[in-house]
Amino acid sequence: MKYLSLENNKIVNQISISNVDITEPRFSINSSSQKILVTAKEGNFIEENKILLKKNVKFSSNNFSIESDNVTFDRVKQTAFSEQKSVFKSNKTTISSEGFNIYDNGNKIKFFGNSVIILK
Amino acid sequence: MKISLFILLTVLITMNIASARKVGETEITTDDGIEVFQNEKYYLLNTNVKIVSDSFKLSGDKIKIFFNNDLYDINIIDGEGNIKLESEIYKINASSEKLIFKVESEEINLQGLNSRLITDEIEMFSDEEINVNNSNGNFYINGLNSALKSDTVLIQGKKIEGVFDNSQDTKEIIILNVFDEDLAYTKTNNTEMYANIINYNRKNSLIELENNVKIIRDGEIITGDYGTLNMETNSYKVKSKDSKKVKVIISNQDE
User: Fold this and answer.
1) What are A64-104's pLDDT values in tens digits?
2) Do B70 and A110 touch (CB under 8 A)?
């Protein structure tokens, strides 16, 4: 924590304050067909159930992974949304896009904007 | 200096784009995203979609791809809006409003106005539907302005169906059946034929014409109920249910 205490315009005490609500958060999105593990370096509550995940945000399941920065995760609705560049990887497939939205318990993923799929 | 830097940058960007897809890979680009439906096993590609692989190029406004287990394991391609398909390897050039391609059966279905499928040997046109199954050789062309064209024959009719010999490199037609309640039309080297039903079988090299038959050759017009044209001898016969009804008109006009 960082904290500044002033007395007679002088810093008399300094306590380190972090802007991060959760360090290395871990969540999961569960559906009947798969479990998606959500990890990041940092997380901040923006609403009661919405967390802004930052830095090395990763969604991984047995079928695929998505990497991005600044992802909003709704832990009640089990959705995730990002307008940052993201990379989806699954077996012999890579999708690069300008963001994504995971909904319907992870069964549906919408990739935004100019998108490229490479099938190997 | 600025111009040469600009040229260099343009070349580098172009090289980067050109090298984005490696040999053996398929690259799909869209202007407005992709929706993946994992349980339903398909993905939607939205706006200005381009698919480029080693063997073909396909573009369209919106394309839906069904897959078997993983996204790369493509089963059916279903596209609509400004569909264009090119394949140098398979020597195919096609365009239509809607396309369905079934990978396993190698079946291509084109729908909509100005649908066309061009190969080295045959050209197919329709304002409604063209369907070719490459694995068994079956094909049909349905609807208004349907036509099939090759170097030696032109066929027009509302319903054209047949079978290719797909055992050889060249796609030769084995069986052809044409139906049009108005009149189907066929033109070979020097003969024009009209009838409601036109059938061809390669085994006997015979074109059969049924109902409202009219054969035109060298200024001679023959009408009747039934006719045949032997493609090997180029000779024809016309019959009528009432034998007196066969009619011959000989024109003296120079062509």
Assistant:
1) 999 999 999 999 999 999 999 999 999 999 999 999 999 99
2) no
* Partner A contacted by B154 (CB < 8 A): no
Hey, is the C-beta of B18 within 8 angstroms of any chain A C-beta? no
Count Cβ atoms below 10 Å from residue A59 Cβ, excluding itself: 28
- CA distance linking residue B194 with residue A32, whole number of Å: 62
Amino acid type, A68: S
Cβ separation A107–B27 shorter than 8 A: no
| Substitution target from A104, A107, A119 for chain B, most B beta carbons within 10 A | A119
Q: What angle do CA B214, B218, B219 make, to 5 degrees?
A: 70
CA distance B187 to B180: 15
| Chain A interface, Cβ < 8 Å to B | 33-34, 63, 90-93, 95, 97, 106-120
pLDDT, tens digit, for every residue of B142-200?
A: 999 999 999 889 999 999 999 998 777 777 899 999 999 999 999 998 899 999 999 99
| Distance of alpha carbon B91 from alpha carbon A13, whole angstroms | 79
Whole-model pTM over 0.90: no
**Domains along chain A?**
22-119 (2.60.450.10)
